[in-house]
Design brief:
The chain is α/β, with parallel strands linked by helices. Helix content is 49%, strand content 11%. It folds into 2 domains: 11-179, 3-Layer(aba) Sandwich (Rossmann fold); 185-375, Dehydroquinate synthase-like, alpha domain (Up-down Bundle), CATH 1.20.1090. The chain has 15 helices and 8 strands. The strands form 2 sheets. Strands 1-8-5-4-2-3 form a 6-stranded parallel beta sheet, sandwiched between helices. Helix 11 (279-294) runs antiparallel to helix 13 (315-328). The longest helix is centred in the middle third of the chain and has 23 residues, at 211-233. The structure holds 5,6-dihydroxy-NADP and zinc ion (ZN). Zinc ion is lined by residues 142, 194, 197-198, 265, 279. Zinc ion binds at residues 142, 194, 197-198, 265, 279.
């Protein structure tokens, strides 16, 4: 039996115009707000102005701070912390994808610290209190809007650093699928594959031992394999955008149950660091490669995966369907150029965590990790 504890305290407001509730939601927790975002895109589309208006109508003071870049660079987070302290802010509204939401979480912890954000993420200091965070999602991918995880990139070393605090679960997430129609095909695909990956990693955590959890994760993956290609073909398809948006939140909050193997996620971070790949793009290479490499360890589990997600009884055909799914959404399955070799990638990956993967097997061996990286080399 799988024993677990789960909690999803984030209030999820889903559907058309959800972002209009930004003011009333935020006011419940704070009244001096850092509006954190990436590029000026949110002001070009009018979203930034609408959010500012709703916050001000609710009686909040709003201080905008843009400039978050993909992978949540720690320098911008340090800057956000300085603004929060200088302007005595007491809450953060994140507007964007995982990088903005994770930066907001890091700043929410960092604002209450003596020490740097990097020290916090390297586990050298611990926060005592956290500012409240709310999220307006414009890219369905990470599920950061309803979980306590934050992933940032060290500005100096480019290492990806992860920390989890239950207190960092956003207080609310405003999910309007219409906010995602401006996403280019590439980012839609990368984000969508990340959603698939969060369910995939849970499916391959054998400690979860539950038919219900298996069917929930497989159902989510099946939904993504159907809806994501439709959204790529027709970016204005709001119904399928809506499916992808809730799938993202469900996949990486506790809604599909806790746990997960996360070997592919652990390996993905080094490809982002060394090859500059977006998170979802790295996973789209690694997951098919991991399946081919690890199949012999537990053929029965793979057969179950291919059957439940792709309806294929024969594993070889199931693997072809997985690869065709990646190809169909326009993501490459191999690196474009040779840089850092598989051995070095494996060495750095192993140095970053006590063990690569847990739940499928007792951690991958160095040889297995090297072979997975070799499979994605050009
Ligand atoms: O700067 P803006 O304008 O927001 O542009 C972003 C960014 O360039 C753009 N974008 C977002 N919404 C858009 C849009 N462009 C047009 N229209 C829209 N509606 O998309 C680009 C990528 O955004 P980003 O936030 O970087 O992507 P994603 O949501 O995939 O987040 C990736 C980050 O999250 C971490 C990853 O490691 C990576 O750093 N993760 C966080 C997790 C978590 N907190 O639970 C788990 C994940 O596994 C992952 O590790
Ligand atoms: Zn992910």
């Amino acid at each position: 039996m799988y024993n677990f504890t789960m909690s999803i305290p984030t209030e999820i407001i889903f559907g058309q115009g959800a972002e209009e509730q930004a003011g009333e939601q935020m006011k419940r927790y704070a009244d001096r707000i850092l509006l954190l975002y990436g590029s000026e895109r949110i002001f070009r589309t009018g979203l930034g102005q609408r959010l500012t208006a709703r916050l001000e109508e609710a009686g909040c003071t709003v201080v905008p701070q843009g400039g978050v870049t993909a992978n949540a660079d720690s320098e911008l987070i340090r800057k956000a912390v300085r603004v929060i302290r200088d302007r005595e802010l007491n809450g953060i509204l994140a507007v964007g994808g995982g990088s903005v939401i994770d930066s907001a979480k890091a700043a929410a912890a960092g604002a209450c610290l003596r020490g740097t954000v990097e020290e916090l993420f390297r586990g050298e200091i611990e926060p005592e209190t956290f500012l409240p965070v709310g999220a307006v999602v414009t890219l369905p991918a990470t599920g950061s809007e309803a979980n306590g995880m934050a992933v940032i990139q060290d500005h100096e070393t480019h290492d990806k650093l992860l920390r989890y605090f239950p207190q960092l679960k956003p207080r609310f997430a405003l999910l309007d699928p219409a906010l995602t129609v401006t996403l280019p095909a590439r980012q839609t695909a990368e984000g969508g594959f990340d959603v698939f990956a969060h369910a995939f990693e849970r499916f391959f955590d054998l400690r979860r031992e539950s038919v219900l959890l298996d069917r929930m994760t497989a159902g989510l993956m099946k939904t993504v394999t159907e809806c994501l290609p439709r959204v790529i073909r027709d970016p204005g398809d709001l119904q399928n955008r809506a499916e992808m948006m809730f799938a993202a939140t469900a996949a990486h909050s506790d809604m599909l149950g806790p746990g997960g193997d996360f070997a592919c996620h652990t390996m993905s971070h080094i490809l982002t660091k060394e090859y500059g790949l977006a998170h979802g793009a790295a996973l789209a290479m690694l997951i098919p490669a991991w399946c081919s490499e690890m199949f012999s360890k537990n053929g029965e589990r793979f057969a179950e995966f291919y059957r439940q997600v792709f309806g294929e009884k024969e594993p070889r055909k199931g693997q072809e369907r997985l690869e065709a799914f990646v190809d169909g959404i326009g993501l490459p399955r191999k690196l474009g150029s040779v840089g850092v070799g598989a051995e070095k990638l494996a060495e750095e990956t192993m140095a970053s965590v006590p063990q690569v993967g847990e739940g499928f097997c007792d951690g991958m061996s160095e040889e297995e990790i090297i072979r997975v990286f070799r499979r994605v080399m050009p």
